[in-house]
Description:
Blueprint: E1 4-10, E2 14-21, E3 26-33, H1 40-58, E4 62-69, E5 72-74, E6 79-82, H2 94-102, E7 106-110, H3 111-122, E8 131-136, E9 140-146, E10 149-150, H4 182-185, H5 187-196, H6 205-213, H7 217-241, E11 245-250, H8 256-270, H9 272-276, E12 280-283, H10 290-304
Parallel strand pairs: 1-4, 4-7, 8-11, 11-12
Antiparallel strand pairs: 1-2, 2-3, 5-6, 8-9, 9-10
Bound molecules: zinc ion (ZN).
Zinc ion binds at residues 163, 173, 175, 177, 180.
Amino acid sequence: MPEYSIGVDLGGTNLRAAAITTSGEVLSSISGRAELSAGRDAVISDMVAAVEKLRDQTGSGLVGIGMGVAGFILIEKGIIVGSNNLPAFEGYALRDDIEKRLGTTVVLENDANAAALGEKWIGAGKGVDDLVLLTLGTGIGGGIIAGGRVLHGHAGMAGEIGHVTVVPDGNPCGCGNRGCLEKHASATAISGMAKVIGLGADLTSEQVYKLAVAGDEKARRIFEAMGRYLGIALATLVNIFNFPLYLLSGGPLPAWEFFAPAMLEEARWRSFTFRHAETKVEKAILGNEAGLFGAAYLPIIERKK
Ligand SMILES: [Zn+2]
């Protein structure tokens, strides 16, 4: 029986879990809805049941459980302290509770950090120990991998790249700041720009992309603007880290041809390091699976410590 771990991905709508071998092969998986309206205990019971089912199916050799959840996490304490998607988990000692119920090691991680780790393990960052992943969605999630591990900062809140300022007096953000990257370059921001410049009131980022493909100039300008804001953030990241690889994932990725030229041009002129050190900016390849793989990898690297 191969050694394996179980990764759990708890988002605002979905609950997924998979048993994955220590070499990255998926043995079995479960996917369902996160019934958040049923309350915290019901969601925890669902998670525990999913893990137990996978463990029963797979047998001995379990290394541990890794969980990726949306929100700020106090890593040492295993507590979620801020999550728009999971308000019922606010301040709750989630890791300890699940460890007690399952009787095995549980490692809790922010979902964007878990996704970055997944790409590093078996995705676009395989073999690269220093990288950044930006996930473009309703917001922008960020994960920084340094020396093969998630860079946490002292409280576990590093990597919040979506809240880096790219416009000094830009759009207000729920975090309290103005002009955060995610307010100017996320899928939501694309829809917002479409409304502001009169392209359409309720267009999704995908619809704006289709208009850009059809040759619509306004739609193309939106992606150029998004690219410039991403480029500003990228230049900052390159200047700080001088990492060899920066990955992007998320719904707006198909529009790469429309935003990437502006993004790379912006990063190039703003960063001496970008111009003089070989730096790759690429598409991530695991998509929605990245977080699940990264979560499963958590107990595996914990063991290597
Ligand atoms: Zn913000």
